[in-house]
Amino acid sequence: MLYDGYRDIDQLIITGLKDNYEDRKTNDMIHAYIFDLDGTLVDSELLWCKALQHLVAVRGLSMSDSHAFDLVLGRAWSHIVTRLRRDYPTITEEPDVIERESVRYYAAMRGTSDIRIHSSIRLLERLAQRHPVAIVSGSTRQQVADAIALMGIGNLLQFYLGSEDVPHGKPDPAGFLLAARRFGVPPNACLVFEDSTAGVLAAKAAGMRCIALRRQGHPHQNLDGADEILPDLASFNPAPYGTALP
Hints:
By secondary structure, this protein is of the alpha/beta class. It folds into two domains: 32-44 and 115-240, 3-Layer(aba) Sandwich (Rossmann fold), CATH 3.40.50; 45-110, DNA polymerase, domain 1 (Orthogonal Bundle), CATH 1.10.150. It contains nine helices and six strands, in the order H-E-H-H-H-H-H-E-H-E-H-E-H-E-E. Strands 3-2-1-4-5-6 form a six-stranded parallel beta sheet, sandwiched between helices. The termini are far apart.
């Protein structure tokens, strides 16, 4: 085939640009949204840190704030218990015993304050009016269910995943990849809201886009891998992702 000079070349360039634009526009569209739980929808991570510090203290041991942050933030419950028993060899109780005791301390502290992050919950409520929404958390399924009941959003979720649902917690992408399969969409059609280094790494390893929440006054997390970093999810702009909020 011979090209008719510059006219054919120009037409090929225009057609190619148009095709690339259409592909990019399709790829930019998000069809499902995934929320982390602790630190994203509920301000619970610092309470879990304090609960574990108390669990250690009643055994005559101590845990610094930095150690507690490193142990808890963004981590699956199974990882937390395994690491706790490794760091404190005299704690030999079974994981379910440690969980029940930790939950008891956590519940006592939670009863003194409202831990819901209202702007994040409001975003979930609005997105759920037009798109499938789920929670993927490193907490146990029971802990996730309790938080869902606290927020009153159970009827808005397609499903939720806890630490029992995948073999490895964040930063492993298994939870997010399972969510994409449950949604029935490719990973790049999902957008994740996270607040931790481990969560951002997991979302990006899954091939998803990720909005990171960095709230003032909370322990610093490296969120540089996120597509955007926001101080409040009320600032989320859905337009670049092919949707609008009702």
